Amino acid sequence: MPSAVSVNHPKNANTADQRTRCGWARTPLGIAYHDLEWGVPVHEDRVLFEFLTLEGAQAGLSWETILRKRDAYRAAFAGFDPGRVARFTAAQIARLLANPGIVRNRLKIASTVGNARAFRDVQREFGSFDAYVWRFVDGVPRVNRWRRHGQVPARTPQSDALSRDLSIRGFKFTGSTICYAFMQAVGMVNDHTIDCFRYERVGGPEQSTFSAPDISRMGYNPANFAFRIGTGPWSRGYAVSYAVSFYDDRTRSESPRSTWWGPKTDPKKLYGGFGLIRIPVDPTGRATARRIWRSFAGQSERMIHEIPDNTTTRFQDDVL
After folding, report:
1. What number is the average pLDDT over the span 177-193?
2. Mind giving me the DSSP string for the chain?
3. Does the pLDDT of residue 208 top 80, yes or no?
């Protein structure tokens, strides 16, 4: 749970849609994060490393501060690619200390690089960090039934165990409280209060972030993939936009993200309903993958999916 929030604050019912939210979601940035990300199960290593980094950076600060700095963190730490961060040199670390966009704490910056190296060790041992970390909840989200945020613990036996193991493996800024906040963020535990509209949407073991069925035989042009934006009536009012970039794993280079767009009815934004978008293959022919990025109201930019190039895929963005 974002630590900047007093548990004595009442529930927040947004005046525009009258949906009840967890009491800590009060600012536009906090509401967007609460509604789109907090508690949604994450199984992508890059995103897991992102939240491990951001939760550690938050220590002693407000989560709102970290959300405002999130894009700067993404730029400073190579898009949260643990392999690239693990290779940061002393000179790169020194430059980060002069970066006003991030928390300029020498220990936190050094720990991010050290954690990236430990993260890579875990990936080599377990195949993925995802396979490692989800063992601490037996592979399925723990669904609680809190009536108010005052009941939500700051740590649990599971976060204690994760913290101890991460420490043994050389991770820093991964105390039990930080680990529990990480577990909440990546959906290992559902700590939305039961009256929050996201409680049922996040759900339990059956919830997954994305659905990616094979549509290679559905008649789509193989030079495109169809991107289905899955938003129900409950999502109306959101201004969501998407972009695509092309990534070449051989050269570890990425093209600039395309213009942000939504369905054809509104080329910039999506306001509820459904949309189907086709994204072309890399015009240079060098990409090994295409990355899809989502932004809420021009903020909270995040990579949400990666698709091998020259393939046809449809997936539903269930977290909207």
Report:
1. 95
2. --TTS-TTSPPEE-TTT--EE-TT--SHHHHHHHHHTTT-----HHHHHHHHHHHHHHTTS-HHHHHHTHHHHHHHTGGG-HHHHTT--HHHHHHHTT-TTS---HHHHHHHHHHHHHHHHHHHHHSSHHHHHGGGGTTS-EE---SSGGGS-S--HHHHHHHHHHHHTT--S--HHHHHHHHHHTTSEE-S-TTSTHHHHH-STT--SEE--B-TTTT--TTEEEEEEE--GGGTT--EEEEEEEEETTTTEEPPP---B--TTSSS-B-SSEEEEEEEPPTTS--SEEEEEEEETTEEEEEEEEEETT--B--EETT-
3. no
Residue 33 is among the residues annotated as catalytic for this protein: yes
Report which of residues 9 and 172 the model is more confident about: 172
Q: Which residue has the higher pLDDT, 133 or 296?
A: 133
Question: Mean pLDDT of all residues in the chain?
Answer: 75
pLDDT exceeds cutoff 50 at 226: no
Which whole number is the average pLDDT over 78-104? 95
Catalytic, out of 24, 63, 132, 180: 63
pTM for the model = 0.63
Catalytic residue among 37, 44, 50, 55: 55
55 is catalytic: yes
261 as an active site residue: the answer is no
